[in-house]
Amino acid sequence: MAEYDHLIKAITQRYTQHIAALVRGMEVMVEHVIELDKEAVSIQRMSDALFKVNEDGYEYLMLVEFQTRPDREMSMRMMEYTAIHHRRYGKPVYPVVVNLTGRGIKERYSFDCLDLTVMSFKYHQVNLRELSGTEYLYRGLIGLIPFVPLMKHRELPEKVLEKCAQRLESEVPDEEERSTMYLALGVMASLKFPKNLILRVLEVSRMENSPLFDGIREEWEARGIEKGRIEGERRGEIRGELRGRLDLLFDLIETKFGAVPDSLREQLIALKEPDAIKEVVRKAVSSGTIEEFIATLKQ
């Protein structure tokens, strides 16, 4: 979804070393890969983050992709991204998928042709739900705080969110950046926690100074409008079905017993479930007189 993409881009651009530390389990020297020509910009858009890393004198590129849900095509896509970046920059590439929820499907892509193993590719996976969140929550790098709610915790969700918010308040001095991190915390937490819980703990006013807030709010509103439209259509279909069933019921009663008394009509119009109307139709069919039919409705 677009809101995750925007926020992940913001985090990876500002906290490059923190993301690399999440992957490697230690802090390493990191630089952004910056190219200005159109081909390079187009290539970079294919992945969430591309870093140049120097680890104990060994220089390589770290390619990081964040996933909100398992993707059967991920291994093939990561192979393509890795090959393109390796060809472009002439450096070894360390490909990584960070699974925000759940586990990845597989970490390898390979195929043979006749007697040849044409391709054998593997990438590293970080499954946030398998990481113990306590260390990250209390002492971890601040750039990783938005991802902490997605890790394993013994504490209640409210306590986790409260501590995350406290750390952002005390450790991110720039107001605009802090608002973006609050926003990222809320959006990422929504992958695991109910939104009413998140809004109870995190104040929306803390997010509003982020330059990303308006765009994400518009996406949420548009999604809400679309959801409302679909629900409205569904409710309209249900009402139409009920109206049709009631019309058939009234036709049956009038054909079999004559005019429908007003009191009976009001009683039947109050029926709101298709199955209830179906049961009344059965009673009308099996009744010999309208008095008998009305009596069955009281049973």
What does this structure look like?
The protein has helices spanning 2-14, 16-24, 38-44, 74-89, 133-139, 157-171, 175-189, 195-201, 213-257, 262-269, 274-286, 290-297, and strands spanning 29-32, 49-55, 58-67, 93-99, 108-113, 116-122, 124-127. The protein has a five-stranded mixed sheet with strand order 1-2-3-4-7, sandwiched between helices. Strands 5-6 form a two-stranded antiparallel ribbon. Mean pLDDT is 83; it is low at 225-230. The chain has three domains: 1-130; 144-211, no CATH class; 216-297. It has 299 residues and is of the alpha/beta class. α1 (2-14) crosses α7 (175-189). The protein has twelve helices and seven strands. The protein is elongated. The two termini are 53 Å apart. The longest helix has 45 residues, at 213-257.
Give a summary of the structure in a few sentences:
It comes from Pelotomaculum schinkii. By secondary structure, this protein is of the alpha/beta class. The chain contains 12 helices and 7 strands.
What are the key terms here?
five-stranded mixed beta sheet, 3 domains, alpha/beta, elongated, 299 residues, 12 helices, two-stranded antiparallel sheet, single chain
